[in-house]
Amino acid sequence: MAVGIFDSGIGGLTVYKTVNKNYPEMDIHYLGDTARVPYGNRSPETIIRYSLECTSFLVSNFHIDTVIVACNTASSYAIEHIRKKFGINVIGVVEPGAKRAIEVTNGYIGVIGTIATVRSESYVKAVKELNKNIKISQIACPLFVPIVEEMLVDTEIARSAVHHYMDSLVNDGVDTIILGCTHYPFLKNTINSIYPDLKIVDSSEAILEYLEKINLNKCQSGKREIYLTDEAPAFETLKTVLTDGIISQKITL
């Protein structure tokens, strides 16, 4: 049985890249809903509907027994709805990221993410469920996604945006930051250069621990397929970095 990964766009390819590297013989199918990106400014009801449609495509067309919800926004609202409807293994990015942050923090965690992810308080709830004594603050960083998709991550524009959003968190004493959007790992080096003592938690890496707990058939054909619901210039920009140049296929949900 294969693994399916979906995101509202191409940011989830950071998760795909991590899974691809660690499970080279497993079949992986990725769906980016680029026709309806971003999910971050949608209503909870719409986010849930889109997430169910993405999962339905993966389950209906491939032998999927595990779905990774690589979108922080969808992970914040749709996980339980997917589990209930499809009865398969579902791994989001919120719980793994929260767990890893608690393991490394000195006591004060910051979360950066989309407007919807921050509004949902999903990371706040996940952290508090695991350790109610941890202090946590969060802030939405809507400029980070376009900066990544324009590949401006190593520019003064990126540095200015990082300062704009994150200075208040760091000055308040945050010692660990959760990258609450799958685009944000591209900004790790920039963030680290500005705040060298800040611990950075990347949920795309934290999910590996959760995958190991599932009895996956790791010895398959190593098939790799990437599907997009619309043309995505950002995919053409980032595909060499994230997918080893795999060509995407366009589908309609």
Protein model, in words:
- The strands form 2 sheets. The chain has a 6-stranded parallel beta sheet, with helices on both faces. The chain has a 4-stranded parallel beta sheet with strand order 6-5-7-8, with helices on both faces.
- It contains 12 helices and 10 strands.
- The two termini are 22 Å apart.
- It is 47% helix and 19% strand.
- The chain has 253 residues and is of the alpha/beta class.
- The protein is globular, with a radius of gyration of 17 Å.
- The longest helix is centred in the first third of the chain and has 18 residues, at 44-61.
Biggest sheet, open or closed, and with what strands and sense? 6 strands, parallel
Number of strands: 10
Work out the helicity level.
40-55%
Percent range for β-strand residues:
15-25%
Widest β-sheet, arrangement of strands: 4-3-1-2-9-10
Distance between the termini: 22 Å
Shape annotation: globular
Structural class: alpha/beta
What's the average pLDDT? 92
Q: List the uncertain runs.
A: none
**What is the radius of gyration?**
17 Å
SS field, number of helical segments: 12
- The ordered H/E elements are EHEHEHHEHEHHEHHEHEHEHE
